[in-house]
Design brief:
single chain; 4 helices; three-stranded antiparallel sheet
Length: 95
């Protein structure tokens, strides 16, 4: 699997509280899921009035949610990234 570090870093700079990012370990693609898509990931049978794009997003979200830990890896969100800790760990590693 080849993953672009630049793409992951660019994605991590865009972290938001309403978007979750995942890495597809099969295709090496980064996937972003909104709360709107993941909130409807479970089939509630209300697809009649839902736009096609949202049905597709919900189907992808369901696939991701069902396969987290095997095919998809969740990237850290803004609450899981502690810049000061990263700097501190780095500084201690070069002593």
């Amino acid at each position: 699997m080849v993953v672009s570090l630049k793409e992951i870093v660019a994605t991590m700079e865009c972290v938001s509280t309403d978007v979750t990012f995942y890495l597809d370990t099969v295709s090496s693609r980064l996937i972003s899921l909104t709360e709107e898509a993941t909130g409807g990931a479970e089939d509630r049978g209300d697809n009649v009035d839902v736009p096609q794009w949202l049905r597709e997003a919900r189907a992808e979200a369901k696939s991701v949610v069902d396969n987290v830990g095997s095919r998809f890896l969740k990237l850290p969100d803004s609450f899981e990234i502690n810049e000061w800790q990263i700097i501190d760990d780095f500084c201690r590693s070069i002593d």
